[in-house]
Amino acid sequence: MAKADKTIKSYKATRTFDAIWSNLLAFILVALWMIPVLWIVASAFSTQIGYISTTFFPTSWTFDNFVDLFTKTKFPQWLLNTTIIAIANTVLTTFFTTITAYILSRFRFKSRKLLMNISLILGMFPGFMAMIAVYLILSMFNLIGSIWALLIYYVAGAGLGFFTCKGYFDTLPKDIDESAYLDGASHLRIFFQIFLPLAKPMLIYTALLAFMAPWADYILASLVLTSDASKTVAVGLYSWMDSTMINVYFTKFAAGCVVVAIPIVTLYIFLQKFFIEGISAGAVKG
Amino acid sequence: MIINLFVPGLGTSLLGDIELGLAYLLGEFLLVLYLATLGWQHLIGRISYSYLNLPLLATLAIAVFLCIYYFALRHNVKMVINKREGRANTGSYVINFFKRTALKIKTFFSIYTFAYHQASDRDKGLLNISWFILGLPAIIHKQYIRGIVLLSFQVLFILYMIARGARDFVGLFTLRVPGILSTQSIVFGVAVIILILFAFFLVFLNVNTTLRNVVLINGKEELEKTKEELSSLINKRFYLSALFIPVIGALLFTIIPLVFMILIAFTNYSYRVVEGYQNVVPTWDTYLSWVGLDTFRRVFSVSKNLQDLVQTFSWTMIWAILSTLTCYFGGLFLAMLLNKKNIKGKIIYRSLFVISMALPQFVSLLVMRTMFEDFGPINTILQQWGWTETFISFWDDATISKILIVTINMWVGIPYYMLLMSGLLINVPKDYYEAATIEGASRRQIFSKITFPHLLYMTTPLLITSFVSNINNFNVIWFLTSGEPSSSYGGTAGGTDILITWLYKLTMKAPMDYNFGAAIGIIMFIISATLSLIIFRRSRAYRSEEEYR
Question: How far, in Å, CA of B271 to CA of B510, rounded?
């Protein structure tokens, strides 16, 4: 009896120790992850101008950076530009990516394998290797300096990003859409009314990525968007981090980052579940 | 068999697998050539450069040679055994391809002649015409939509070729068309060639559909009517309508630009003035010219360029391996930690980690860069706590920068893997765990014998694709260091530049060295294509696409 008691006791002790240790570790890790986030949020409320400070957190707090950001800089325009592209891109890119994936997953036609192999090879070239030619082509269409150039470029590339989607679609049962087809529904209707609802996690995942792209893209945007008014937030805010600007604009940059981050982070947190499903599907199907 | 022992590549070719044999042969030949001329001198130290570890290079060359030798030999032995046991070898892809194509052409013509002899005079005429005039046979067969589309394509094509197509086509070769920049000549020329290929395809299509109709008429069957044609576009041939825009988009903004850039590597288009190379920038009266492999010669024969290439290449590989592994195992660890039953507030923790993933990369990375700046908060704190006297210039030292880059990348990448792994951990069959617990396995044993093998099996494709995508990871390097500190020997690549950021600098920052950048891009493509090809041919997903049903 005594022996059993002892093992139970030591077992309990290990368990408590383990619980404390794991919780502590998790807490420390989260804290580590939060340091940059906290710093940028704090800087956004700082009364200082540059990033140089004697303390980690600002000594006095103010809301002026946000007010200045929206009244004295081009930031509202940038935000509007990016939002427009992001929303348009979400709709169009998601449509073209999913429909390409749907076709390649469900139809069997002659040049199908060839198309897939070509897109695979195209994906292996470093993307912006072709930027100069893209710039040339866009300038032939007289689109340089316009935000629509970005949108056209994103949407034009949408068809090539089908791999993750197709991998997911391949796992969905084929009988449902086949029987709908036999019942006389058109493919477009099957796609919108039966297939997409089935593939909801993937749909949301693709849409989320498409929505994120304009916020994060720097290379093409910096090349194409030459005038100050047509910039996206990524290009605009990056220009404030230039060594000649940073000492004046840093806290405004921080405020801008907070403004940009809030909606995106909210989206991510709420759509976390779909996101996990999307990336696991994409990862496993390669 | 004796040939195999000495030159296994030749043996592979003779046994029927021609391309692989030639690849082996080429590798062997190049390495032997290198070792015979320079390699042995490198090995014993007769030639030495300060920046390259030449003995190591020569040793590596020998190792690679032995590897190729071994693989070729193994391959040959396998093929011989297959032969002896009466199993067929796959043989040469190229020869198989030609064989298959020849067979297809033969069948096509036998059907064609057969149908031709049975056809009425009108249909004979139509079959003859179909080789020259698109759409006309279809119109006479009362398939108006197809006919009109094809016919108008042909009319437009001929008009276009007369108006400017022919000039553009010639312009691709001469690059000297008055009033058009040489670069535009290349773009137009590539477009014309694609258009011509498409026209050939349509001619074939035209003959083929005419033939099909004639066969149907011969068999006294009904032809497809206009109405059915229309409905087939939204039903049977739905894929044609749906893929139209994506294909056009890819052509215009991916394929033409890529071909353009590949071609640029063989021209003298560059803002950089280099002695011995006639680099020019096209204007209305200066034209580019084709220079063959000169640019590649510049990459490999100018010692600074070669040093840049070797340095960036090795750092790219180290970076890709380190960043993939740290994030993978970090994410796994974090997922396991947050998956424990005794952790409180899992959802909050997970959401907090998601923040770092959701932040646009330029935000988080630029913030990180500023934090490690000379007067940034990290230095401030270090000084206040009395750990250092003055600030540390983190970003001025290539080695410290590299360590920081990998560490900061963990901050960016681990949450992604954490989410992924926690998704996969749920999928590990529960009965394995139950069985293991009953058998009295320790937690470490459960992890190393059940969880990890399962995850590894599931994520091998991901590991490899993320390795390849890390080779091309532009954002992390560019936003953190922009490849700085600048080169210590006057090269164009900075201390922390990976191939892709170097490529960006070469083509986007002054002096824009376009042809050089394009050559580097081609080299990068060869690297990542080789890696991906090996991977995709081995991955389950590629081999057994249909099995997933």
Answer: 8
**Contacts A167 to B, Cβ<8 Å:** 541
Rounded to whole angstroms, what are the CA distances from B542 to A104, A122, A285? Answer: 14, 17, 9
Nearest CA of chain B to the CA of A170: how many Å? 6
CA distances from B98 to A69, B23, B94, B202 (A): 65, 19, 6, 22
Q: What is the 3-state secondary structure (H, E, C) of B185-216?
A: HHHHHHHHHHHHHHHHHHHHHHHHHHHHHHHH
Which chain A residues are within 8 Å of B201, Cβ to Cβ?
none
How many residues belong to chain B? 549
B33 touches A at CB < 8 Å: no
Average of per-residue pLDDT across A54-58: 70
When mean pLDDT is compared across A137-141, A184-188, B111-115, the lowest value belongs to A184-188
Task: Please choose, from the candidates B247, B265, B151, B279, the residue with its C-alpha nearest in 3D space to the C-alpha of residue B203.
Answer: B151
Decide: helix, strand or coil at residue B525: helix
Collapse the DSSP code of B96 into the 3-class scheme (helix H, G, I; strand E, B; otherwise coil) and give the result.
Answer: helix
Mean pLDDT per block of 10 residues along chain B (549 residues) reads 66 70 76 74 65 70 81 79 75 77 89 84 82 82 83 90 86 80 84 90 87 82 72 72 84 86 85 76 78 80 78 86 91 86 80 82 83 79 77 80 90 87 78 81 80 78 79 85 76 82 82 84 79 62 44
Q: Does B258 touch chain A (CB under 8 A)?
A: yes
Alpha carbon A157 to its chain centroid, in Å, reads 16
Whether residue A60 lies within 8 A of chain B, CB to CB, comes out as no
Which of A22, A132, A280 is the closest to B340 by Cβ? A22
Of B359, B465, B479, nearest to A261 by CB-CB distance is B359
Where is pLDDT greater, at B42 or A180?
A180
Residues 6+ apart with CB under 8 A from A196: A98, A203
Q: How close does chain B come to A80, measured CA to CA in Å?
A: 17
Nearest-angstrom CA–CA distance, A286 and A283: 5
Contact between B187 and A140 using a beta-carbon 8 Å cutoff: yes
